[in-house]
Sequence to fold (314 residues):
Amino acid sequence: MIGLRVSGRAALTLALCLSGGAAWAQTAAPQTPAPSAPAVQPPAPQTPAPPAPTAQPPAAQPPAAQPPAAAAPYEPTVGQAGKDVVWVPTPQALVDKMLEMAAVTPQDYLIDLGSGDGRTVITAAKRGIRAHGIEYNSDMVTLATRNAAAANVSDKATFAKADIFESDYSKATVITLFLLPQLNLKLRPTLLDLKPGTRIVSNSFTMDDWQPDETATITDGCTSWCTALFWIVPAKVGGTWRVGESDLVLTQQFQKISGTLGGAAITDATLKGDAIAFTAGGAKYTGRVAGNSMQGSATGGSAPSWTATRSVSG
Fold:
């Protein structure tokens, strides 16, 4: 042990004992520590309350679907292109004249080739005639059908979207058309094969060398496309026919005929549909043609009636 005396206001004895590497110290007069003020505890941290949920605005709804706007009714334009021709309507005054020339009645069945807005068909239907329009433009067919309904003639006026060169109009008794000359010429063989007596009326354009039976031009209520041409489909009479003991030889170019009976020339010969007439040997012959036979009456000859059978077609 080592002792150390230190003088001063307080005696301090330090003793240092070394034992097993442990150390201790003691003051000569231990001091009683003054009581310490209780420690102030900091307030416990407060966890903030979660904010109250706020009302959410309703989710935006997609706008209600709007019905599509109605399409404007189709309105054709004069001069618009078509399959074979541009569209130009026949003036109403000429439509009336064409039907007058064809002498239409409620017993007729009229077909209009290239019927456009339907005016010819509808005009015929208003006269009590069954009428049908053939038109390639489907919009025009819809328009014509609507026009017929507006005129209260849908029961008699009908329309079809079709090609006039591929259609059957063999049941028609009247054909109307407003086509170019080359189209008329293309149609001509079909028209000539229609039943004899079928009436055909064209606005303005011809059938080449098939001359019309009648032509009329109007001025009242019409300023352009004002001429109508009228034909009657003739029976096919060319060839050699046996009349009693004589041969009737007929040459035919459309409705014009010439020939001989018993070697003598016939005169004043006419052919109008299936109605034939001619003069030969002082007798006037009139009759009807039905395929390869004819029969009728004669005045001024030796017999009041006559018949003929075709032996050779011409």
Notes: Helices lie at 92-101, 119-126, 138-150, 181-192. Residues 1-40 have pLDDT under 50 and may be disordered.
